[in-house]
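User: I'm new to structure prediction. If I give you an amino acid sequence, what do you actually give back? Let's try with this one:
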Amino acid sequence: MGKPVALPPPRVGYYILGLFLSCAAIQTALLNIENPRAGSYTLWDLAVWAVLILISKRTSVKLPLSARVSHTFIVALAAVVYFPPWLAPLLVFLSSFDKNFGKVGYPWYKDLFNRVQAALSTGVAALVWSQVQLSSSLPPHLTDLVGIGAASLAYFLVNMSAVTYVIHLSSGLSLRKVWFENFSWLRTSYLLQAPIGLLLAEAYRTPLILGWGGFTVLLIMLLLYFSRYYWDEKVRLEESFNGTIELMVAALDAKDPFTRQHAERVAAITESLAKKLGFDEEEVKRIAYAARLHDIGKVAIPDAVLLKPGRLSPEEFKLIQSHPQKGLEVLRPLVPRLPRAVQEVILHHHERWDGTGYPMGKRGEEIPLWARIVALADAYEAMTAGRPYSPAKSPEAALNEIIMLAGRQFDPKLVRVFQQAWLEDPIWKDREVFLRRSTLPVQLPALPLPSPSAPASATWPASNSTTPGRS
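Assistant: Good question. You get back a string of structure tokens that encode the predicted 3D arrangement of the chain. For your 471 residues, that looks like this:
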């Protein structure tokens, strides 16, 4: 007996069916709509564009959470401009199959989903493009630019919404997390690079090289592939960058047993405060990243000083106070890639509200907000963790001390926010509870450093599992 055909989880299956029916409805509507810019075409033209779509599908790059991006977006928009409205989505559906399609173990429904959502995105873009062309009273060139921009936005919304939701259904990740990790930075790319689709169509329609427009299109595609190669290398570089930082944080954790998961708990407190202050999701992630790095300069402090059980001498204390500057020195090769706010946290997290802190004696709002937040989180964690020379305080005693130090060591407004967060009984309130619930190794999340330089279409990645993972 043959191996039974794998079926998607019911919710995913119904979702794919809904997308398919929506695609069919759009396709039916497009049969009665005209694209004034479409010209005549031959079977050769169809074959050429089918191959371009197929090739563009192969040039994809992994994203942080269960998705990939490719050049299909650009070629699909070009097909929308060049062909009748009904033909572009059909061409995308037939030509954008995955390279693993037909292989044993490959989930057929993932390929179906990717093809359906790509065709649906193209169909909606074709509908928008045609309506702009038919209704605009602007000069032709402006009409084309408005049309391609609107079509690009329509493609983006359908494509990204479809992929975000299917990852949410299959993995259980929140919609916000999937969107933020993978796609939030792509919207600028879609709008700014949409005219390349218009350029491809016009280049094919108006031969510039050896009497055939395909040569010009191939030249443009080569430039796009070069940009994709650059982007791929950029992603790998950022992975290496974050891996290096993670190793340094782990080395500090191993160096000082009294700071076990100190950085993680400081980051958890910082996240709570940032959310209370109304930071958006990207800012929350960045400040939590900064919190994990705040003490990185301690890797450059000799163990004899850092781990000394008794009182420090003035010279030793001065050496300890140098760890903020040493943090930036240690990270010097990576500093150009660190956001300024992250650098400010590393340098200023020991400044005090009254100006008696170090290393620069900044006071009040001269101290960057992110550094003030991390300073408060760092102090609470240290108070409740204890050191060889200072026994741990209870959560209540630490809170009372922080309240007493408002206006001297800490920003009074932040102290009020901290008190509100503390009263909600968060996991970080009690250190032992936090440690018990954090028994698994914690990896430093990747710093969000995406660049909107590469046009992309998102897809659900191939996997042998119904739950997508990083592939």
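You can read the tokens as a compact description of the fold. Here is one thing that stands out. The two ends are 31 Å apart (CA to CA).
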